[in-house]
Specification:
The protein is α/β, with parallel strands linked by helices. It contains 12 helices and 16 strands. Helix 7 packs across helix 8.
Amino acid sequence: MGINKNLYNKIVANENIYNKEIGYKLGVEKKSKMIFFSLLLCVMSAVVKVFWSNNQKNKTRNKKIGISWNQLHSKKIALAESSLTIVNIDTAKLLQTSNLKFLKGINLFYALRFALEFNEKLTAFSYQSFFYRIYLSSVYDIIDQILTDIDNVFISGHFDRFVSIISDISEKKEVELNLVQHGCIQIFKEQLIKNKVTGNIYYLNDFSVPYFQTFLDFPKKTKFVKLESKKPEINFIQKSNKKIIVFGCQDAKPENNLLIINHLINHFPNKLIYIIPHPREDIVYYTKRYKLYENSHISREKPLNVEFFVSRFSTLGIEYASIGIRSLFINIDNVKMDFIISGKYEVYNSLNQFKKNLIEK
């Protein structure tokens, strides 16, 4: 039938909990992109309905697929099932020729009617809007098409809108839903509304296992499968003799990244402070601030010959730790993450504590 109010309210409630606790505000630019995406999907759906031939042959479909909405998720799914066909539902990927057939399934009249049913209080931590409801309704119909005649689906999200939608449709269509851990797990003060998983849970870290129950609903018979630990993909070789200190950024509260980076640059003038922006960040945010500093380098590539890694709570630090590189986390955000409370890693509760206790090796 399409998305319903209960599912929409779950998505918005979880967004508000996550974004509020992590400090991730949705500004005008992000909300404007959401409006653009919703309109684009509607226009493309109308075009496809007119020009897509019902007689066009469909390729034989696999009964087991993966669904991804970014490159990282695709890589994680491949760790669990390397031979899977992965359908990417990122907006740009949906407009590729191979995925246009799914846009035909969007019920534009239902989406419009659904979007008009609400009169809700808006917050800075959710996309809530008339256009967001159109977008979610459209995405729901697309995923419903993707999961038609499917027996098993693999995803690598945790508790975002796509996970909620895929979980809802999988339950209705009796599709076995398998979840692959894509990063460490945050434990929230406020309880998330759980999504149901009926298949296996593939995990990366032993310390994460007790916390899947904080955001997932799964039967007792669920099988937990340990994945091989991921090593950093080293693709930057330092040409100078400077020792490298890597800082891994977070996209929430980027001003907190700057506090730590500034200290590293000033405290270690003879070392290269290598800044890796978060995948969702614009690299220009850092290049325009640090391009004049001789001991800084900004890149998305991963360097070798690292003396130690620093971050607020980037899981890249865990990857570096797995190859024997000292990883330090400065929890100035006071977040509760599975790896932070595991006792396995070097964690500082403030920047001052970090400054006081850091001993160069």
